Amino acid sequence: ADFTGDSYKLAKDCVGTKAKRIVFCGVRFMAETAKILNPDKEVYLPALEAGCSLADAITGNDVRKLKAKHPGLPVVSYINTTAEVKAESDVIVTSANASRILRKLYEKHPALIFLPDEWMGKNLARELGKKLGKELIVWKGRCIVHENFDPSSVKLYRRMYPGVEILAHAECSPALVQTVDFVGGTGDMMRRVKESKAPAFMLVTECGLGDYARTVLPGKKFIPMCRLCPHMRATELGRILKALED
């Protein structure tokens, strides 16, 4: 690949390239985000069926109904949403900047709507000291990868690997988030691993990040605890070749 990184970084990387065509090896909402930031370039998605349980959990019409039910409340949408949902939103955030942006919005607004990740919304409400359902309205969307991690297994891994540093994505359940050492997006997790002197690391997220981390940080030890995303796995080298040829 010419660029690697999380979805927003890749969309921004595409802005800086002179290439007129971009083959985006990810899921549909990622390719849409790249197209939004690069309207004059052609963006190709090798696996057209590659969706996302979070992005597919809500439609533009759902957002319009929510806004009608809660008039005047700003709609904050996680970047893992379709272009249609982004168009109905006031602010788009990433897992890395969501907390900071919500804090700024609360300076002018008593309540907000957060879409579509229910668990990320609950984690943010806890972090910011806001009441769910009143000060922060969340949607019941979940990531099929992150909803399958069991918080009770964290204690077991700590006994098995003394000193292990456990990092979880912000899409994980509030119960699991409260048991780990660090919470953040993929970029945050990578920076933390680079800076930390822990004897071993466990990345509680999609397996692709662990594969990438082992490649770029060969001197670090990683303990497997990940889940595969079937949507991300839909993009294969053969599909990329076909997109280029056709």
Chain-wise SSE layout:
Layout: H1 7-15, E1 21-23, H2 28-37, E2 42-44, H3 60-69, E3 75-78, H4 83-87, E4 91-93, H5 98-106, E5 112-115, H6 118-128, E6 136-138, H7 152-160, E7 165-169, H8 174-177, E8 182-184, H9 186-195, E9 201-204, H10 207-216, H11 237-245
Parallel strand pairs: 1-2, 3-4, 3-5, 5-6, 7-8, 7-9
Helix pairs in contact: 1-2
- Overall, the morphology is globular
Which class best fits the helix and strand makeup?
alpha/beta
Listing every helix as H and every strand as E from the N terminus to the C terminus, the arrangement reads HEHEHEHEHEHEHEHEHEHH
| Average pLDDT reading | 92
Distance between the termini: 19 Å
Largest β-sheet summary: 4 strands, parallel
Number of helices: 11
Count the beta strands: 9
Helix content: 25-40%
Strand residue content: 5-15%
Q: Rounded to an integer, what's the Rg over CA atoms?
A: 19 Å
Strand arrangement within the widest β-sheet reads 4-3-5-6
Ranges with pLDDT <50 over ≥5 residues? none
Question: What are its keywords?
Answer:
246 residues, 4-stranded parallel sheet, 39% helix, 3-stranded parallel sheet, globular, alpha/beta, 11 helices
Can you describe this structure?
The protein is an alpha/beta fold. It has 11 helices and 9 strands. A 4-stranded parallel beta sheet has the order 4-3-5-6, sandwiched between helices.
Care to give the gist of this entry?
The protein is built from 11 helices and 9 strands.
